[in-house]
Amino acid sequence: MDPTPPEEHVPQPGEWPVDPQEDLPISEDRLWVDGCFDFSHHGHAGAMLQARQLGKALYVGIHSDEAILENKGPTVMSLEERVAAVDACRWATQSVPHAPYVTYLPWVSHYGCKYVVHGDDITSDSDGNDCYRFVKAAGRFRVVKRTPGISTTDLVGRMLLCTRNHFVKSVKGTLSGQEGIGSPEERQASATDLLRRIKDYATDESGLQPGPQVWTWSGSGTAKLDHVLEEAGKFETLVDGKGPRPGQRIVYVDGGFDLFSSGHIAFLRKVTELEEAEARQRGWYDPEQTDKRLKEFQEDYSPAYIVAGIHDDDVINHWKGLNYPIMNIFERGLCVLQCRYIHAVAFSAPFTPSEAYLKAMPWGTPDAVYHGPTTFIPLTYDPYTDPKKMGIFREAEQHAFQHVNAGEIVGRILKSREAYEARQRAKLDKAVAEDLVKSKEAAQGQ
Question: What EC class does the entry list (predicted)?
Answer without folding.
Answer: transferase
